[in-house]
Amino acid sequence: MYKSSLALAVALGVLAQQAGAAGFVEDSKLSLSSRTMYYDNDNREAHASSSTNFKRPDQRETGQGFKLDYISGFTEGTVGFGVDAQAVWGIHLDGGRGYHKSGFMPDASNGSSVNQWARFGANAKARFSKTEAHFGSALAPNLPILVANDGRVLPQTFEGGTITSKEIDNLTINAGQLTHAMGRASSNRTGLSVSGSGAYNDSNKFRYGGLDYKLTPDLTLQYYYSNLEDFYKQHFLGATHVFKIADDQSFKTDLRYFDSSSDGKNGDGGGYNFGNNGGYAKNPGEVDNKTWSAMFTYTLGGHSLMLGHQQVSDDGGFVWLNQGNVRKDGLNSASEGAGGASFYLFTDSMINQFARAGTNTTFGQYSYDFARVGVPGLKASVAYLRGTDIRNESGHGTYSEWERDARIDYVIQEGTFKGLGASLRHGIYRGEGESPADQDQTRLIVNYTYNFM
């Protein structure tokens, strides 16, 4: 079907001959995860369009997801081989025409959601000493320059190859090249893109490399470089330090800096535009951004208080991988369901991103772990973010926005239903500017994972 699928099939054939080798089977893990999710997005009356006086429709949907994961061990020998496989299945439970919007589940022709969707992915892997390589279509990177999204019924995954090496003490090296993405609301793969790009503009080459160096047991330094061909180049610098005050008391500092610029067709009028998150751009359509953030967290027993600030430069918005605009073949075709992406900043919050040009965001979060009062598995948090100096897309004037998020999570710790978890989340967003999008959002998620081996 695809060249990568053929290569993977060959690799699996080799592995099948060695499956009896010690380690491959003994270290294998097989698990089935279930997720039930209710999603309610209330677009407020204040959003009515001034030209049509039409209120954006609310979205209320419920879905059920199943994820079967097989993770093998490695065969014996100087180079060990293994395989990981993942099958996912999503089911539409509720949320008919009028309440369905692209992104939560795949679109049906009648304006509702499809009844179900599924996909399968697998990775061949090899290990030499302290270096591992993975190649396939079930990759889920969690790095400063790319964070795989798992915020809906099914997770987002990627196709390509990655390498992680820990040959040098205290140093982790990551590198890779990705070619396609599998969206959280899709059975198909798409090319890679950015938010606001043309519907048929994508790339099949996202390259990255980076270092995590533990300078001391308490201080970690990071540098990463990534390049989405014909869209952007991005440098990242990070530093994390944890100062232990006492056995149950600490102070954490987390500093992050991104420098992003245009690449190839994005900067030479080739039409590979960046939408600048709906905000201002000095050179419309081009990537041109510097973003820094600083976060400080004080922890005492079960209490945790985090305060921070983030600044997005005036010349353009922050950029990250997002396939939301990618479409099927045909001028009037529907979305591929590939939208929805995460990025490595605290302001990637429940509803908004606070990533438009000029945004100065001050934020804070208070969390409490109820294990300290005899209720293990119960946690709660509340966060507040306020962004100011956001430049209007027209370049005339600025505006502000804020968001308040609250969540409570509980995981059963023992008994027949041990591991069953529930999460209730509620967010409120209010914005100004040229295209306000006030929203109240509620999510109820129930998770359970059963381990077969």
Automatic annotation (TrEMBL):
GO terms for molecular function: porin activity. It comes from the Bacteria. Keywords: Signal, Transport. Gene3D superfamilies: Porin. GO terms for cellular component: membrane. InterPro entries: OM_porin_bac, Porin_dom_sf. Residues 1-21 form the signal peptide. Belongs to the outer membrane porin (Opr) (TC 1.B.25) family. This is OprD family porin.
